[in-house]
Design a protein that fits this description.
Thiol Ester Dehydrase, Chain A; HotDog ACOT-type domain-containing protein; 357 residues; transit peptide; alpha+beta; 2 domains; 25% strand; hydrolase
Length: 357
Amino acid sequence: MEGTSGESETQRKKELTVNVPVPEEKPFTLWPGKYHSPVTAALWHASSSFAQRARNVSMDSPAQITLQSKTPEENRTSVVYKFSSDTSLREEYRNPWNLFRIGKLLEDLDALAGTIAVKHCSDSDHTTRPLLLVTASVDKISTKKRLRVDVDLELAGSVTWVGRSSMEIRMEVIQPVRELREKDDVALIANFTFVARDWRTQKAAPVNHLVPQTEEEKQLFAMGAARDAHRKKLRMGNQLSSTSPFAKEYNDRLTQILREVDVGDFVRLKSCVLYTETENVEQPRIHVEVIAHVTQPELKSSEVSNTFYFTFSLDPECQAPGVDRTVRRVLPATEEEARTYLARYKADHIVLPSGQM
């Protein structure tokens, strides 16, 4: 980190303070770019009291009986990345082509969503055993515009819907960062679904209620409830008929965690271009499937952990003179490839209830 005067260093600490309150503790000051990203530090800080509580409370302690009612504003958390002034932080998120490292940003989104989930599920009774929170799925991540690594960026999120033992957290990436936000400032939107489990029984555990206050919060709550009802309906249909293509289509919209990946596991990634869309000559789209397998060579076994779907487009601003921008069509060569292509195409173009992503 570049050397600065004591006064400017103190000022920068204040600017980068993240609102992750802990009872009877001073605000936690982050040092982004020095050891870790702002979101990772925020997650460590928010989880520190949670982890300490888990160590101090016996698993035989009673579960939380009285559920609290919280507003989305109570768990709303945001982190600002000072890319314009912090060169060390900027280099952490810059790739060799001077573009943004999207993978690192997605890691931060998941970390911040976990922080928000911890905040919402926490209670004031330190005698009850805490909940075990797990990322269940990530809804379709929509990128609205290209991110810049030299402009300040903000990650913000809050719980927008709560069921009995699950919750949906809406995450937004905002750039540029300004006092009066405009609609075009939102660069990325993603919905994370977390489920709560009891530490001792490993069964589903109820979470605190959510009480939306504003019209926007009520609308987001209704959209989350509709998505949950839609998923349950399709899951029920899939159980009744495993050949239901409609159920598979919608389920493929989600990045579902089928098997956890532990440190030390061998992971094999298999990718291919499923299909392309060339109707828009200026910005054709390329749809890619990536399947992550956890392999155990000694047992000669391989399990699917996750299936990811990425959509890429060509940026007209990056057009080099004399370079052919024609994107080739991708045609299936086998019956299995044709079925995969049709299922993915229908999943990408499925019509959800009004107002949903």
